[in-house]
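Researcher: Next entry in the queue.
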Amino acid sequence: CTICLDDEGDVVQRGCCCRGENGAAHIDCLATAAEHDDTCSSWAFCPTCNTRYSGSVALVLAEKWVDKVKSRPEDDLEWWMAHNNLTVEFNKNGRLAEAESNQLQLVEVTSRVYGDDSLRAASAVQQLSSVYGMQGKYCQALDLAERAHATRRVHLGPDHPSTLHSASSISTLCDELGDCSKAKELKTQLLSSMKRVHGVDHPNTLIVANNLAYTLFLLGELEEASELACEMVEMHRRTFGADHMDTLIAESTLSEILLARGDVQECRDLLHRAIPLMYRAYGDDNNYALLSATTCADAESQLGSHEHAIAELQTIRQKQEDALGAEHSDTLRTASTLGAALVRAGRRVEGDELLEATKQQQVRSLGVEHFETKATTRRLMELCSPS
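Model: Structure for this entry, 387 residues:
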């Protein structure tokens, strides 16, 4: 442990950018150190490398912080910070019902104590938008993100980091709602602002650039998407390290582009390294990891490992149905991938029926022009049309 220098007990990696032994610590030691930090930032951020903790370490620290302030009044700043941070970690760790419950309470308290037009209310609303986005409630999420962005723009100006964060959320939700052209326009403008305000290598800049690469992929601009995604993977590795969750997400983005370009083996090899690290950081029920596992299983299916891919996709689909619901866009994406795998394995009728049912549900919930609906339609045409 880098804090108490003892090697007994449960010494864990902190999930920050500190490498090797420098990243090891006891959870209780981290909590004790945070209690002596007057800024409270050490509950969420590593005081050594200044990056946010991730995975189970971040969640345990968030719960300990809330426990520390539970007797404080609702207008206490640290009480508010601790509860907002807990929602962040619930959301990242896939505990979406708890995230929603906690943040709805915080929005109500914040509006009552500080007013609907306050910056603190904007922060609470923005975090609730993130929760709804993870749950697939994209229209509600967009309404809240636009509300937060408007408040921050008035109070802080268009180039303040908090305003830019809200703008980033809006652009990502445009993707989820199928308006990828608008998302590209917003992300291109936002990336320019991020570089000017934060710098090229800042974590927030890298996140926006990686998100832009994904939008380019959705629009079918694969060469430009691939070039940007490769650059982002290298920059993430230099900035965060090869095993950091943000790096793994960047690699996941690149893997989808590689698969779309036909570089199936390279896609699978990249994800074979990334997915176990995602599971270790967030658990095997985390949706970021499950989406990457879906892409990996798709690659496995295309390479001929049919039964293994089908079994993996069935497991992923069940986990997503349990956590997100059967009609969530991510669950439907896995169902579409499973249908294609069934057809490739010779189970044509079963696969065709699943693809058709999935397409109909996507049309109802996402719309006929949504990229996920179009992906399932392409699979039906390519795999299920009579020879």
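Model: The chain has 17 helices and two strands.
Researcher: Noted, moving on.
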